[in-house]
Design a protein that fits this description.
The chain is of the alpha/beta class. It folds into 4 domains: 4-19 and 176-319, MoaB/Mog-like domain (Molybdenum Cofactor Biosythetic Enzyme, Chain A), CATH 3.40.980.10; 22-42 and 142-174, Molybdopterin biosynthesis moea protein, domain 2; 48-136, Beta Complex (Molybdopterin biosynthesis moeA protein, domain 3); 330-399, Beta-clip, CATH 2.40.340.10. It has 7 helices and 28 strands. The protein has helices at 4-14, 157-165, 204-214, 229-242, 260-266, 301-319, 372-377, and strands at 20-24, 37-38, 48-49, 53-56, 70-79, 93-97, 109-112, 116-119, 122-125, 135-136, 147-149, 170-174, 178-183, 188-189, 200-201, 218-221, 245-249, 270-274, 278-279, 285-289, 292-297, 330-334, 338-339, 345-353, 360-363, 380-384, 390-391, 396-401. The strands form 8 sheets. A 6-stranded mixed β-sheet has the order 7-4-6-5-9-8, with no helix packed on it. Strand 20 (285-289) and strand 21 (292-297) form a beta hairpin. Helix 3 (204-214) packs parallel to helix 6. It starts with a helix and ends with a strand.
Length: 405
């Protein structure tokens, strides 16, 4: 069996790049940038005040102190954001200025209005200042021609504001990968269907669809495929024809009612691997048909959601050209001791507390593969080494946060 790292790297390395499309900047949140953005201008475009106050010459304030204030004449006129050209700051004078307004000629600092005593046309300054104080300089953030955003960046809301500040209206991003989810099994039924003996509600696909959307994909749900080889084959073939990625749930074991492997062969899917040395989720499988990709998830809810987190999410991100396809592994301290079986890397569902001091992780009690309750409680996985049987309270462990997926 492949290790977790080997399997994930194989999936990422094999990911085909999707085509690009140009979208409006305001519609690009969560999309992966497919062009480097160079600044066409200096940002800011001019020197301006960071405070409401008075534009001054620092050489006029060298002797200023609480006990010996310097009196400056306030010139007629002012500098307001978007206003007309302000008067020049001459020796012994100052100019009223507001946040975001252009710095007047002759000024080298801005004193906050809270520190100034005003008496008619006289402003009393009670402290010395340094050049550039409370001023934002032209090009301080970006110089014309500098790299503003690199190719492969997944765009955040604040980055959309940066793009707009640079004058961009549209931007090149990867198109969304289309992902079709096919659940298989005679025991499955939709929530609106009447209960029947031995049946269970198909509850995994809503979570997978949310993960797909979180990764920038477009999720589609196929009808449940019963345990008939022809029905499973038709479902997979139809999904492959209209999708970039097909995700099947269940049917990847070796039982007499597991028909996914036969259906894949009929659909022309080449298997890249089948089984990974992890717990839960060992029967995870991966394959391809040309540029299309297939991921076979186990049928147990915890195993299915975990394996998509570990392998499906990196695949979708890599297909979009995301420079950080795999979620980072961080460190946390165990809040209690924990034991586990040897032999496979275990991903233990846990809660994560990062509110005060170092992150503390608490593995949940219910770790059964079929437990949807513990999956609903978890916001992280603790990675337990296959060669260690026990960890003590306070030990540092590797952690995968679900919000990073």
């Amino acid at each position: 069996m492949l290790t977790f790292e080997q399997a994930r790297l194989r999936i990422i390395d094999s990911a085909p790049r999707l085509a690009t499309e140009r979208v409006l900047v305001q519609e690009a949140a969560g999309r992966v940038l497919r062009e480097p953005i160079l600044s066409p201008v200096d940002l800011p475009g001019f020197d301006y005040s960071a405070m409401d106050g008075y534009a001054v010459r620092v050489e006029d304030l060298q002797s200023a102190s609480e006990n010996s204030a310097v009196a400056l004449t306030v010139r007629d006129g002012e500098s307001a954001a978007g206003g007309e050209d302000p008067p020049e700051v001459l020796p012994g004078t100052c100019v009223r200025i507001f946040t975001g307004a252009r710095l007047p000629v002759g000024a080298s600092a801005v004193e906050m209005q809270e520190n100034v005593a005003r008496d008619g046309a006289i402003a009393l300054m009670k402290r010395s200042m340094t050049a550039g104080q409370n001023i934002r300089r032209r090009g301080e953030d970006l110089r014309e021609g500098a790299l503003a955003l690199p190719d492969g960046r997944r765009l955040s809301p604040s980055q959309l504001s940066l793009l707009t500040a640079l004058g961009r209206v549209r931007v090149a991003v990867s198109r969304r990968p289309v992902v079709t989810i096919v659940a298989t099994g005679d025991e499955l039924r939709s929530p609106e269907d009447p209960a029947r003996p031995g049946s269970v509600i198909e509850s995994i696909s809503p979570g997978l669809m949310a993960f797909v959307a979180q990764c920038g994909g477009d999720a589609k749900l196929a009808p449940i495929a019963r345990d008939r080889v022809d029905e499973v084959s038709h479902a997979i073939a139809s999904a492959l024809a209209s999708s970039d990625v097909v995700v099947t749930i269940g049917g990847v074991s070796v039982g007499e009612h597991d028909h996914v492997r036969t259906a894949l062969e009929r659909a022309g899917v080449t298997l890249d691997f089948w089984k990974v040395a992890i717990k839960p989720g060992k029967p995870i499988a991966f394959g391809h048909a040309g540029a299309k990709r297939w991921i076979g998830l186990p049928g147990n809810p915890a195993s299915a959601l975990l394996t998509f987190t570990l392998f499906g999410a990196p695949l979708l991100r890599a297909m979009q050209g995301d420079a950080r396809a795999a979620a980072p592994i961080v460190t946390g301290a165990l809040s209690r001791s924990v034991a586990h079986g040897l032999g496979r890397l275990e991903f233990s569902r846990a809660t994560l507390d990062e509110h005060d001091g170092p992150a503390r992780v608490t593995p949940l009690v219910g770790q059964a593969s079929g437990s949807v309750v513990s999956m609903a409680e978890a916001d992280a996985y603790v990675l337990l080494d296959p060669e260690r049987a026990r960890y003590e309270e306070g030990e540092l462990v590797r952690v995968l946060r679900l919000r990073d997926v």
